[in-house]
TrEMBL record:
This is Transport permease protein. It is a multi-pass membrane protein. One of its GO terms (molecular function) is ABC-type transporter activity. PANTHER family: ABC-TYPE MULTIDRUG TRANSPORT SYSTEM, PERMEASE COMPONENT, NODULATION PROTEIN J. It is found in: Membrane. InterPro entries: ABC2_TM (IPR013525), Nod_factor_ABC_transporter (IPR051784).
Amino acid sequence: MKTDVLHAVRLARLDLTLVARNTTVLFNVLLLPLLMAWMFTGAQGGAEVAGVPGGAFVLTGVPGLMLGFAVFINLVNSFTARREELVLKRLRGGQPSALAVMAGSGLGALALLLGQMVLLGIWLHRTEGVLPANVPLILLAAVLGVIVFGLLAAAFSGLTPNAEMAQITVLPVLMVMLLGAPIAFPLDVLPGPLGTVSGLLPVTPVVEMMRTGFLGADHFSSGGEALSTAGQWVAALPSIGIMVVWIGVTGLLARWLFRWEPRHG
């Protein structure tokens, strides 16, 4: 177990080094979500959304975008490229276990996401005067989001024939995340069935937990009332339950679809 942890940490450090050396990946993974956040906040103007300034509402939903870029797209590209270059095959045949290899990629993605969220927190404080109300809830949302979208990335990499096609393979999931999640708008603006479906998407519980953790108010419903720390955790329980179910679903998909070596023939 200790050996697996050490291997996972080493692989995560390698992933972060490779991202830092690739300016295109660095822009797409780290800077593009922040640029989109700036565009969304500009579109909101000074209007209030769900009882909070529009800028604060959008910025606390941006972690949903970050999951799409720093975790899902990043890992689909990484898993696919490494499979085609036989890196995954060599890793599986070496000392690290399969779990350590997957955990290493997840740890690297989590580090990228947390780095973005530090920048986001500074932005929120400087522009909106907001300090996080419940950091443990924010961290739990980040970990659950990385697990779900990391497993989903593993599954989608199995459907992706090569690294060049990865940019197309990820588009359906990215579009659903952009259009269906409450990043720039509350769920109650969607018609009944769409609102229900959106509430069950894996990105929505993460956004709601993040927003509640940052603002200290109930953003699991349309009320936006202030909550105590204990009240925030109680209100988050259904969202945590949804994420646990998604971990099971994406875990099965990853086990079924993920491939360690290129398909022959």
